[in-house]
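Entry 14. Structure prediction run on the chain below.
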Amino acid sequence: MWRALGFVQKNLVWSIPVCMVAGILVGAMVDPAPLKALIIPLTFLMVYPMMINLQLQTVLSGGDYRVQLLTQVINFGVVPFFAFGIGKVFFADQPLVALGLLLASLLPTSGMTISWTGFAQGNISAAIKMTVIGLILGSLATPFYAQWLMGAAVEIPLASVFRQIVIIVFLPMILGFVTRLLLIRIVGADKYHKNLKQKFPAFSTLGVLGIVFVAMALKAKAIITNPAVLLACLMPLAILYLGNFLLSTLIGKFFFNRGDAIALVYGTVMRNLSIALAIAMTAFGKEQGSEIALIIAMAYIIQVQAAAWYVRFTDRIFGPIPSAQAPLQHSA
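Output returned:
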């Protein structure tokens, strides 16, 4: 079982499209309405396990204020407005899709921020802190940005968005923190880190695939009627990620050392699409939510593939890791 879950988790670039196609086929053949009951449990399955490994205490550690500050400036001062502009160009007559693009840009970092930073031999300690800070700031800022930038085109249910963020972000965050402490107390820190810690992300992946499946099933008839809607999402997403990678790479290369630069890139380019999906599917109603979720689901395909390719070019961009710094870059 764990081997199968691990395989699915490592191959999101394929498993996400498979679930999308499966959802469309099921939604076309049967009434997908009963699947709406799965949204809340799937959302919990997606978010809660990732919160167990979230290291909240890292926010209090210092020493890298400059890279942390600039990372969040990019995350909240540049990327959302870039996404909003792309949405205005490509989805001027589809405000819900434009809102989905904005939501995807408003929730920076995920567990994969840390993983990809590690794969590229960057500063994992900085990446962990970026993940925690980005998640908290993004969750608090999302309702205000959505109202400010999209409120004229889409009715933003602010109270509902805030309520869902508390339910799907902060409540699981508290439960995850308590769960982590209890597990460490019960089995010991050594066993937790060696045997349990790496298993939780697989459950989150199951939740992601389930939500994508349900969102596509609910949207199936509209997609079959107009299949070009899927392809129409790829170009603006590609522009968003390409622009983000270019900006973060240039800032990282000219202002930071190799380890911090890599952490900054993955701390600004990787988005928490799981939380964005959860907000879309729970705060905006089932019909609107499935339309908003469409472009977020498509973003998984580009994000995972782009992150993997970037690892291959890291040494060409930032140079090989200095041997004297190797232990520091891998410290958590």
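Confidence is low (pLDDT under 50) at residues 326-332.
Filed with the rest of this week's runs.
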